[in-house]
Amino acid sequence: MAPALSVVLVLVLYVLHQDFWFWRDVRPLVFGFLPIGLFYQAAYTLATSVVLWLLVRWHWPSHLEDRAHQ
Fold first, then answer.
1. Distance from CA of residue 25 to its chain's centroid?
2. Where are the beta strands (DSSP E) in the chain?
3. For 3-14, what is each residue's pLDDT tens digit?
């Protein structure tokens, strides 16, 4: 995959991590009990995990795996 797309994904995650829009909001509650800021952080963590998984799949050097199987 193109390195430019990887850079864009990381930059998007960096910008989204600076969540200043939910700092003072307690309402609405997600699922009736979870504050919106906490839900946002959980969703952000899941998105970060997916992006990091994609980065490893795209950029992991295949020659390291070839040596491990020999």
1. 23
2. 29-30, 34-35
3. 899 999 999 999
Q: What are the distances in angstroms from CA 1 to CA 7, 19, 31?
A: 11, 29, 37
Phi, psi dihedrals of residue 23, rounded to the nearest 5°: -60, -45
The span from the first CA to the last CA of the chain, in angstroms, equals 27
Distance, in Å, from the CA atom of 51 to the CA atom of 34, rounded to the nearest integer, reads 25
In the block, residue with structure tokens 């994609």 = 54
pTM above 0.85, yes or no: no
Residue 19: DSSP 8-state: -
| Neighbouring-strand partners of residue 29 | 35
pLDDT digits (tens, 9 = 90+) for 16-51: 998 887 777 777 889 999 988 889 999 999 999 999
Residues 37/19, Cβ–Cβ less than 8 Å: yes
